[in-house]
Amino acid sequence: MTERDRRYSWDDPAPLAEATRTLSGLDLLTRVANGTLPSPSIAATVGFRLAEAEDGRAVFEGGWAEHLLNPAGTLHGGWYGILLDSAMGCAVHSTLPAGGGYTTLEYKVNITRGITAKIGTLRAEGWVVHRGHRTATAEGRIVDTNGKVYAHGSETCLILER
User: Which residues are within 8 A (CB) of 123 and not within 5 positions of it... i.e. 6 or more apart?
Assistant: First the structure.
């Protein structure tokens, strides 16, 4: 057996938390995507980044990493869930005013293919389907550079009062 070691760092989460109180969801996500604000720590932990944000839409990029494998040698199913929840939830977040919040009520993930080291970078695209006063729904998918779908899902979020 060969032991592996993984070390990583992340930015102080305080500036991002403060910006959440003062910026609209879209402004916040745009600044995270362009590097003006730090990414949340989960991005460093799992190895993905927010690549794009617009009103009602968010795109993350990430991919295979040895520390994320299941016993079969493919990415663990939880990785699909984390990435899709991030994309779908941030799509909802992009519609919120400054100080607005949300929490995921439920999500469903359908895995259609295993992800191996040969796949390369993947994109998790999330978009809002419905945005009401108290709830929002979103859909998402994980695709490769050719548009082949590896997973798709749906999510319901509770919009939190300021």
Answer: 51, 59, 60, 61, 142, 143, 144, 145
- Tens digits of per-residue pLDDT, 113-131? 998 888 889 999 999 999 9
Rg over CA atoms, the chain: 16
Domains and CATH numbers, the chain: 14-160 (3.10.129.10)
Instruction: Give the H or E element holding residue 42.
Output: helix 41-46
Six-digit token string for 96: 């919120």
Half-sphere exposure of residue 45: CA atoms within 13 angstroms, side-chain side: 7
The number of angstroms, rounded, from the C-alpha of 7 to the middle of its chain's C-alpha atoms is: 21
